[in-house]
Amino acid sequence: MEWLKNNAGTIVISILLAAIVILVIVKMIRDKKKGKSSCGCGCSGCAMRDTCHTSSRKERNDT
């Protein structure tokens, strides 16, 4: 119990940082599923435009 008291601040900060990291990862996964770019710029000038979002392009072309 003494250890928890001595390290309470570190534990709280670690939990907050872990929660922030998890939220960022969840947002990135959701954005990727929606087809949004993670870089913030358009795909037209991107060197990886042919490999990025290939599954979403195929789905749009099939319908």
Walkthrough of the structure:
- The protein is built from three helices and no strands.
- By secondary structure, the protein is mainly α.
- The longest helix is centred in the middle third of the chain and has 27 residues, at 8-34.
- The protein is rod-shaped, with a radius of gyration of 20 Å.
- The protein starts with a helix and ends with a helix.
- The model has no long low-confidence stretch (mean pLDDT 80).
SSE layout:
Elements: H1 2-6, H2 8-34, H3 54-62
**Count of discrete alpha- or pi-helical segments spanning 4 or more residues:** 3
Overall mean pLDDT: 80
Helix content estimate: 55-70%
Q: Tell me, briefly, the overall form.
A: rod-shaped
Instruction: Report the span from N to C terminus.
Output: 61 Å
Elements, N to C (H/E): HHH
Q: What is the CA-based Rg, rounded? A: 20 Å
Low-confidence stretches: none
Would you report the number of β strands? 0
Report on the biggest sheet. none
How much beta, percentage-wise? under 5%
Structural class: mainly alpha
